[in-house]
Design a protein that fits this description.
The complex is a heterotrimer of chains A (649), B (337) and C (529). By secondary structure, chain A is an alpha/beta fold. Helices cover 50% and strands 12% of the residues of chain A. Chain A starts with a helix and ends in a 12-residue tail after the last strand. Classes of the chains: A alpha/beta (649), B mainly alpha (337), C alpha+beta (529).
């Protein structure tokens, strides 16, 4: 019940609720209080315009149209609810049939519902109006039956969802009868969305009734609902617009109220609506909102000073998003450089800001995110200026990106070849043919067999590994100096992961291309990279040669990461190791060292002061008050229930 | 193999002959889709045939009243062919559909197919125009607002747009039509209020037909657009440093449309039936005015035929939407329906 | 399959129904505007010949054979392409039509056709053709709705092609026979030979001929040249006559009013509430009176209304003056005669003095005594729009106050004809029946009952029949008092109760015309803007 009241918290929800309650009250009380006044004839004062006495004027018998509109609420809403009840009942019957009837009968019902649902409600209503006859009863049955297929589809979807759950399957295995399971387990789970949708459906039925009555097929005299009043009012439209306006507004308001109320409840309950049940695809995940809080600590920068060998130079990079409680900074004061041919790994748990750092460096953080940096240069060109054609060209040809999920990173509606060729068409000015030829060539270079044919295929016709290679090939359409690969193997089968890594290594070797490899997988980074940045809570906490990772990491977090990696010596019978505690929420970064709460070496200073990223004589950097202290950062066994897994990027 | 030929035009783009990977999905899609179309048609025809038999009691008695003479009832039964065995009636009905003999209208005393032929063009032109207007309004609007409100920007724009489109989407087309007549036809005198005699006479009916679906469709397009703009492949397109026009039109839009079309298709299908109400508002000389008067006059042969015509219209729209989807997004072909 | 094999249900569906109803004036008479008057902001004199005159009809004429039905739509549209032997001018006088000379002597009618009358297929109209027309209508087997209404039954017709004369010998005196002939459309020879060809084309001598028919939507007529045999010698060369006439079917009166306002059409009949705004715009209009409220009782034995006491009680239960106000939206008045449209053949007041006073208590007592608790009431939804429905609702209320249970059934123009002439599923019906001359009503108020005849209410009133017999023997004007006496008997016995007249206005925009009841094609004058 509390979830229902959540509706009241949005302005729209509150308005809809108030309106719905008002309409229902009117339906309940209107006829009781006003029936006599609304029925009072005054044939000396017929067809009068609006006045103080008759707000919406009078009808052909001199009756007050406004009062009649109020009184008509009961019949209008009663009929709409009756029609909705029929629709829900028939829908339940048809919707649960597949569950009860078993395979053959069920498929028949599903097929029938599929056909019926394709026809618009009005057409079905007209059909049933012929069958049931013209009049209020006929219209109720017609609109009820016309609404049934949509409810049937909804119930089918809901029931199928519940039927797949473990307890239902367990009950089935245990030999409980299907009708009993339906009543015991399935229907209670279906009830809530059904009620919500029935509310929306009642709004629709109200409007449908108005339509039928407007055509003269609904309520007949002397009974009157809003549709009937509208039918009469429309004939007076030019004499007294209020005569049509009053019932029209009533229909619209009530229809809106039911509809919006239902939608708001559905939204706050996260309930499936008939509309979305009709769509074959599920709803998409909403984009994640910003989070993280402010901190002023900055890393001490390592100077790289206009070295001609430097491909990417980032200094004091900060990414911020507007959040609900002020600005959130998921990346804070990050500085690093990448040299020609160098492979830099960035590791960290999810939320550490490693992907965002790469995106920011590639100028791919879009609004409302904000990127600030003291320096952000690619091949010596400042990337912080306005978006110019030259800059786009530089980024498009010299910087190539490989994303985590190749399945979603290609445009599903375009052929692979065209997607590759696009780069050259825009940045090299090649014509379609030449661009496509280059695309085929690049596909071949990433070891895709039969590239001519493959170029004409759509992404869904590629395997996962092939897609990722094609993605790398897309990056090779230009002549990249730097490849940024964000978890390039995470979404792939283990068997093809190595292929992709080998391909990256080969490209790097061949053209002296620099690589930034972002990964949660310390083992991969250790294998591929020369140098590693370890990030935590939006900051670089350590910067060290990859070779030193296993042996001489100085930050307790780095050591914990390394320890969490299973290797040949790990006893596979033991649960996987993990780092105790939770990663820091970027919206709520503590004052001192962000890792303090999880650190075995924590001291009072850690909680008071954020340690700066200090460079040692060997060029390694670390941000820790207790660097090099060997504490027992013993990995603990994973407690599935209480601890989040290490990764999920 | 007529079915195999339909997708041939598309299959010619296949680079190498005889590769089942290309023709396969299209053929399977065409066969399955045609099967569904035929199935739906059969249901439609059977339902409209059954309509007269579903009427509780004796349909002739129901329409003529209890005191009608036995002669009159018998004559009407014979006229409707109700005296034949059930299956024979069904056979005649289906046969009539194929030979274009749909019986005689009881109220107009004209062959039903003549009435349909006379009335269909007006309805068809209105529906098609409404369809085009709805899409022409909804797509640019949805895409534009989607772009403006991407990644949680323009909250006010979003709220205003969503509220307006929800309300507009709920306004029944006939109410809108009446309001439009009142404002533009009578009040301002800019546009004709009835009939289909001049091109300008199409404006108000097409608008009242299109605005509601356009509002709903625009909302769907916006939501899809916002979602698509968050998609990985749009990031990929940005990473290619394409001009934003290209990113929107070549990458985001087709994908937003495929998702929108699925729901939008049903919406557009319902516009076919929406002409019934709009025609009655604008005295449009089409099937919509006819079906209402023939329902009131219990002119069963005419009602049956018009129901079939509307149903076929809806099926054509649905099929066209599926084909369009398949063309834009080949994955939709293999998606189970 | 010809439609003969289908039961054409009761004989005069669409026929004798005389367009009972609708807002239009039916069977209105002929030419001139008798009591009708014109008003409004006509430009006066600035006529522009040529162009297109568009008018709205509220009902589709259906099949176009002019002698097949007297329904409003067909009867009106037939005026364009078919002429009558005679015409009636604005003062109600008989003037020339196809016949340039005529005489009525007792039971003998002599007509001489004008010279050079041609049909739309360029053939010439002969006296024999006219005889064939009259014989066709006169043959009961042809079920023409005009028999007994516009052409007295059992008339013998002879023709002399050389002298161009047609002689009609009547079986009994018929005082209004010339006025009847002025309503009877004459079809040309080719059409008589192939009647089926008339259903979607025209073959007449009229000033216009059909060039395009779109049933349910519009009909287009083109002007014929060299037409000189119009009413009282009118020609098709009058200045201001349009080249093309388009008749559009617009069922909704408000829509028609809108079209008129926006100038898309030039003429429309508007009887309901929309007339007020057209008047306010100062549009040209002609007006004519017509009955819109007329209550009929089923006199058949199996109906409770066969009891005169019940009919009287049902009449007494009603406040007829209030019903009239509601029905006409306060724009009409009480009827005075049964044949009410201009030019009224027999002016006077046969109705008001004979009507019973409202007396609900007496009605309740009488109904209780007769053991009547329930009646079936049908009314025509096409009459007077929402006013009609409101008046019906009011009547139901008043009957309920008298202790009755009422099954009220609104029916459209078509279905209600089927009900009253065919199924007979009604006790009380509201159906206005409009004619100019009292003799035209006789087949409806007496004689063979429906479905075989046109006496759909199965009225048997000896006093009425007696008075009719006496009136028929007298020349037209002299018989009027007796005609009115006959009608009064019907009202006194509560056989038929006319209770509301309305002024039906035909509005024009961009054109003037005479349309007092029937539309006169040669009276159309297009106005300069």
């Amino acid at each position: 019940m509390r979830r229902w009241t959540a509706v009241l918290r949005t302005p729209l929800g509150l308005t809809a609720t108030v309106l719905t309650v008002a309409v229902l009250l009117l339906a309940l009380l209107g006829p009781v209080l006003l029936a006599d006044a609304a029925a009072a004839d005054d044939t000396d004062n017929l067809l009068a315009g609006p006045s103080g006495e008759h707000w919406a004027g009078t009808d052909n018998l001199g009756r007050d149209i406004f009062l009649r509109t109020l009184v008509a609420a009961r019949l209008s809403i009663g009929l709409a609810l009756a029609a909705t009840a029929i629709a829900v009942a028939v829908g339940l019957l048809l919707g649960t049939a597949p569950f009860l009837l078993g395979r053959f009968g069920g498929r028949l019902v599903v097929a029938a519902v599929n056909v019926a649902v394709a026809f618009p409600g009005l057409l079905l209503a007209l059909f049933f109006a012929v069958v049931f006859g013209v009049g209020a009863l006929g219209a109720v049955l017609a609109i009820g039956c016309a609404g049934a297929p949509a409810f049937a589809r909804l119930v089918q979807t809901l029931v199928a969802g519940v039927a797949g759950r473990e307890y239902v399957e367990a009950a089935l295995v245990a030999g409980v009868s299907r009708p009993r399971i339906l009543v015991r387990h399935v229907l209670p789970n279906v009830a809530e969305p059904l009620v919500v949708n029935a509310t929306i459906g009642a709004g629709g039925a109200l409007l449908s009734f108005a339509g039928l009555s407007f055509l003269g097929l609904g309520v007949q005299q002397p009974a009157y609902d809003w549709g009937r009043l509208l039918f009469d009012g429309v004939s007076l439209l030019y004499l007294n617009p209020a005569a049509a306006l009053a019932p029209g507004a009533a229909v619209l308001l009530a229809g809106l109220a039911f509809n919006l109320f239902g939608e708001c409840v559905a939204k706050s309950l996260g309930v499936t609506t008939t509309a979305s049940a009709l769509a074959p695809r599920g709803s998409r995940r909403a984009p994640g909102g910003g989070r993280a809080a402010a901190t002023t600590a900055r890393d001490t920068a390592t100077g790289t000073d206009g070295d001609g060998d430097v491909v990417l130079d980032v200094r004091d990079l900060e990414v911020s998003f507007p959040g609900e409680h002020g600005v959130v900074r998921p990346v804070r004061g990050v500085s690093f450089t990448v040299r020609r041919g160098e492979a830099l790994g960035i590791v960290g748990e999810s939320g550490s800001g490693k992907s965002l750092t790469a995106l920011a460096a590639a100028r791919l953080v879009g609004e409302p995110g904000r990127v600030d940096a003291e320096r952000l240069e690619l091949l010596g060109t400042d990337l912080q200026g306005a978006d110019s054609r030259a800059q786009r060209r530089l980024l498009g040809t010299s910087l190539s990106l490989v994303f985590q999920d190749p399945a979603t990173s290609f445009n599903p509606t375009q052929r692979i070849g065209a997607q590759l060729a696009e780069v050259s068409r825009h940045h090299h000015g090649l014509d379609r043919r030449a661009a496509l030829a280059r695309a085929v060539d690049r596909l071949r270079s990433v070891r895709i067999t039969d590239p001519e044919r493959r170029a004409r295929q759509y992404p869904h016709e590629f395997s996962g590994g092939m897609r990722q290679r094609a993605m790398i090939g897309m990056g090779l359409m230009g002549s990249p100096a730097l490849i940024v690969a964000d978890e390039p193997t995470t979404a792939l089968d283990v068997t093809v992961q190595q292929q992709v890594l080998d391909l990256l290594a080969a490209i790097r070797e061949a053209d002296d291309v620099a690589l930034v490899l972002i990964s949660h997988d310390v083992a991969v980074v250790r294998e591929v990279c020369d140098r590693v940045l370890v990030m935590y809570a939006g900051r670089v906490v350590e910067d060290l040669p990859a070779a030193d990772l296993a042996t001489s990491a100085r930050h307790p977090y780095t050591r914990a990461l390394v320890a969490a990696v299973p290797d040949m010596t790990t006893d596979l019978d033991q649960p996987l190791a993990t780092i105790p505690g939770r990663p820091v929420d970027p919206a709520d970064v503590p004052v001192g060292c962000a890792f303090a709460d999880r650190c075995p070496l924590v001291s009072p200073r850690c909680r008071a002061e954020d340690p700066p990223l200090a460079t040692d004589p060997g060029g390694r950097r670390v941000a820790c008050w207790h660097a090099d202290e060997t504490g027992a950062v013993a990995p603990q066994t994973r407690d599935v229930a209480a601890r989040p897994p290490l990764e999920v990027s | 193999m007529a079915l195999g030929e339909a997708p041939a035009a598309v299959a010619t783009t296949a680079p190498t002959q005889g590769r089942p990977a290309w023709s396969g999905p299209w053929r399977r899609f065409a066969v399955r889709r045609a099967g569904r179309l035929l199935g739906s048609l059969w249901v439609l025809v059977s339902a409209s045939f059954l309509m007269i038999h579903l009427i509780p009691g004796d349909p002739v008695r129901t329409s003529l009243g209890p005191t009608a003479s036995a002669d009159l009832v018998a004559a009407r039964r014979a006229e409707l062919g109700l005296d034949d065995p059930f299956l024979v009636q069904y056979w005649h009905f289906v046969q009539g559909l194929f030979t274009g003999d749909l019986g005689t209208s009881l109220s107009l005393r004209l062959p039903v197919q003549e009435v349909i032929a006379q009335r269909l063009p007006a309805t068809l032109s209105l529906a098609v125009l409404g369809f085009v207007v709805a899409v022409a309004i909804a797509v640019p609007l949805g895409v534009g607002v989607g772009a403006l409100t991407r990644r949680g920007r323009g909250r006010r724009t979003e709220l205003g747009f969503t509220t307006t489109s929800v309300v507009l989407g709920l306004v029944p087309d006939f109410l809108l039509g009446v309001a439009l007549v009142y404002v533009f036809g009578v009040g301002l005198g800019w546009l004709p209020v009835a009939g289909d005699n001049t091109p300008s006479a199409y404006v108000l009916p097409a608008l009242s037909l299109a605005v509601g679906p356009a509002a709903v469709l625009a909302r769907i397009v916006r939501v899809e657009m916002v979602a698509v703009l968050e998609a990985d492949f749009v990031r990929t397109a940005r990473a290619k440093r394409l001009p934003s026009r290209t990113v929107y039109l070549r990458h985001a839009l087709p994908n937003a449309l495929t998702a929108s079309l699925t729901l939008g298709g049903m919406l557009l299908g319902s516009m076919v039936a929406g002409t019934v109400l709009v025609e009655n508002v604008f005295a449009w000389p089409g099937l919509g005015s006819t079906i209402v008067s023939s329902i009131l006059a219990k002119d069963y042969p005419l009602v049956q035929a018009i129901v079939i015509v509307y149903g076929v219209g809806v099926l054509i729209v649905n099929t066209a939407v599926d084909v369009a989807l398949a063309l834009i997004d080949p994955r939709s072909m293999i998606r189970e329906d | 399959m010809t439609d003969r094999t289908h039961a054409r249900p009761p004989r005069r569906l669409g026929g004798a129904a005389l367009a009972l109803g609708a807002t239009a004036v039916l069977l209105a008479a002929c030419g001139g505007g008798g009591g009708g008057s014109s008003s409004g902001g006509a430009g006066g004199g600035d006529y522009v010949s040529g162009g297109t005159f568009t008018m709205a009809f509220n009902a589709d004429p259906g099949q176009l054979d002019p002698q097949s039905s007297a329904g409003t739509g067909l009867f009106s549209i037939s005026q364009l392409a078919y002429d009558r032997l005679l015409a009636i001018d604005a003062d109600g006088e008989v003037v020339s039509g196809l016949a340039s000379e005529w005489s009525l002597d007792g039971t003998s009618v002599e007509l001489t056709l004008a010279e050079g009358i041609t049909c739309s297929d360029d053939s010439e109209l002969t006296a024999s053709d006219v005889k064939d027309n009259l014989d066709y209508v006169g043959d009961p087997a042809n079920e023409s709705p005009f028999l007994g209404v516009f052409l007295p039954a059992e008339a013998t017709v002879t023709a002399d092609d050389a002298a161009r004369t047609v002689s009609i010998e009547l079986a009994a005196p018929a005082p209004f026979v010339l006025q009847g002939l002025a309503n009877l459309p004459i079809v040309c020879a080719a059409g008589l030979a192939d009647r089926a060809s008339l259903s979607d084309a025209t073959l007449g001598t009229g000033a216009y001929k059909l060039t395009d028919a779109q049933p349910g939507n519009q009909y287009t007529y083109a002007r014929r040249d060299g037409y000189t045999w119009g009413p009282d010698g009118a020609t098709s060369d009058e200045p201001g006559m349009p080249d093309t006439i388009v008749v559009r079917v617009v069922e909704n009166e408000s829509t028609a009013a809108n079209l008129l306002t926006s100038g898309e059409i030039n003429a429309a009949i508007v009887a309901g509430a929309d007339a007020a705004r057209l008047e306010a715009q100062g549009l040209f209009s002609t007006e004519a009176q017509a009955i819109v409220g007329e209550q009929w009782y089923h006199h058949g034995d199996d109906h409770v209304t066969s009891d005169p006491a019940v009919r009287l009680a049902l009449t007494q239960a009603l406040d007829l003056a209030e019903l009239q106000r509601v029905l006409t939206a306060d724009r009409g008045g009480p009827p005075t005669t049964f044949a009410a449209i201009d030019p009224v053949g027999c002016p006077g007041d046969s109705v008001s003095p004979a009507l019973p006073e409202q007396d609900v208590d007496a009605a309740r007592a009488a109904l209780e005594q007769a053991g009547v608790s329930r009646i079936t009431f049908v009314y025509n939804t096409a009459v007077a729009g929402s006013g009609g429905a409101a008046a019906a609702e009011l009547a139901v209320q008043q009957w309920e106050e008298a202790g009755l249970e009422v099954e009220a059934r609104p029916e459209g123009a078509g279905p209600i004809q089927e009900t009253v002439f065919g199924t007979g599923d009604w006790d009380v019906a509201w159906l206005p029946l409009n004619v100019n001359y009292p003799d035209q009503l006789v087949p409806f108020l007496s004689g063979t009952p429906a479905p075989e005849g046109t006496n759909f209410a199965r009225i048997e009133n000896a006093d009425y029949e007696d008075a009719v017999a006496r009136a028929s023997a007298l020349p037209a004007e002299e018989g009027c008092a007796t005609w009115l006496e006959a009608e009064a008997h019907l009202v006194e016995d509560a056989d038929v109760v006319p209770f509301a007249n309305s002024l039906v206005k035909t509005f024009g925009n961009g054109a003037e015309f005479q349309y007092p009841g029937q539309f006169v094609p040669t009276s159309i004058r297009m106005l300069a803007n």
